[in-house]
Amino acid sequence: MSSSSSSMNRYWIPHLDIHKKVITQELQYYLGPEATVRSFTRDGEDGFLITTPGPCLTDEQIDDICVKSKEMWERQAAARASGGATKILKRPLHQPVVMSKTGSSDSTRRRREGRRGNDSRSRRDERRRN
């Protein structure tokens, strides 16, 4: 990294009309590879904290991000409206694998053995008393 974190400038902009995914994708295009963005709340208002070695985004760049954000929200809404909710999830690697089940033979066997142990202790205690 050519510049240290102490020489980086930090700017806050409100989240109004800005999609997080869009600003994350576009920021380095506008401000260079060292620029970063993260969600940040300032005085109770949500927004984005931008860290960059140079100046912050221009009004034109922010307008462009807002336009792209609006397009992103419209695409997401269209996908939901077209039945995106009925889409089949493709998660073959996340197929659940049963490790144990309540009431399986192992747990039943352990419960029976536990009872036998208690029964034999009770008999021993009873013999000692007599």
Automatic annotation (TrEMBL):
PANTHER family tied to this protein: RFEG-RELATED (PTHR39609), TRANSCRIPTION FACTOR RFEG (PTHR39609:SF2)
Region (Disordered): 78-130
Biased composition (Basic and acidic residues): 115-130
Source organism per UniProt: Chaetomidium leptoderma
Source organism superkingdom: Eukaryota
Protein name as it appears in the record: Uncharacterized protein
